[in-house]
Amino acid sequence: DGGITQSPKYLFRKEGQNVTLSCEQNLNHDAMYWYRQDPGQGLRLIYYSQIVNDFQKGDIAEGYSVSREKKESFPLTVTSAQKNPTAFYLCASSRGLYSNQPQHFGDGTRLSIL
Amino acid sequence: GQQVMQIPQYQHVQEGEDFTTYCNSSTTLSNIQWYKQRPGGHPVFLIQLVKSGEVKKQKRLTFQFGEAKKNSSLHITATQTTDVGTYFCAGPEETSGSRLTFGEGTQLTVNP
Fold first, then answer.
1. B57-86 tens-digit pLDDT
2. In chain B, at which end, N or C, are there fewer CB atoms within 10 A of the end residue's CB?
């Protein structure tokens, strides 16, 4: 079955610690995205990548970093500079480089502060 | 920048009642997509509308795209408890390729 795998499902971060959220897809999609969702809120774009070795900031990139070394993988690092990281993080992918392609989402990672 | 707004933010209905959520964009859209997120789950793509005035149906769900391609609606006839969740519309960013701007969503609860 093709899909998007996010891990871990739950993650706890200590003060001053960087944590990395994993996102892997086997859909052979070119574009990948990271969204943050706070309780009862919509989806806010953190970073996105339309091709390997290239990525762009979204609306709330401060305190986050990404890499896209392989087509299948788009890990997100939540750095210690992100002062309010508690949220639900969703990774998504889409087939092409155009907006008429639906986005497929992973199951998400819930990040909390210890 | 582009804004996509949805109303209402919350809607509580009795099972069997109808439900409608509205989506409005500050700019003309080349297409609009609708997603559903069940409680505790992730968004799932429902449908895409492309043409001005387009209407598409999926069983009890009816999707419309406005004539000016700046607004859209989702109507559910005779809601069921399985319809519970948050419904998001999403439109493309004009200058950013595959990027979408999501509305804030309408959270639907259905009382049995």
1. 999 999 999 999 999 999 999 999 999 999
2. C
Residues 33-92 on A with a CB inside 8 Å of B are 33, 35, 40-43, 45, 48, 50, 56, 58, 90, 92
Cβ separation of A42 and B50 shorter than 8 Å?
no
C-alpha to C-alpha distances, B8 to A30, A70, B74, B77, nearest whole angstrom = 34, 41, 12, 17
**B83: helix, strand or coil:** helix
According to DSSP, the β-strands at B4-7 and A44-51 are unpaired
Q: Residue B34: closest CA among chain A residues belongs to which residue?
A: A102
Share of chain A above pLDDT 90, in %: 78
Residue A48 CA to residue A39 CA, distance in Å, equals: 22
Q: State how far the Cα of B31 lies from the Cα of A82, in Å rounded to an integer.
A: 34
Given pLDDT bands bounded at 50, 70 and 90, which one contains residue A1? low
Q: Would the pLDDT of B108 be above 70?
A: yes
A102 touches chain B (CB under 8 A): yes
What whole-number distance in Å separates Cα of residue B45 and Cα of residue A57? 24
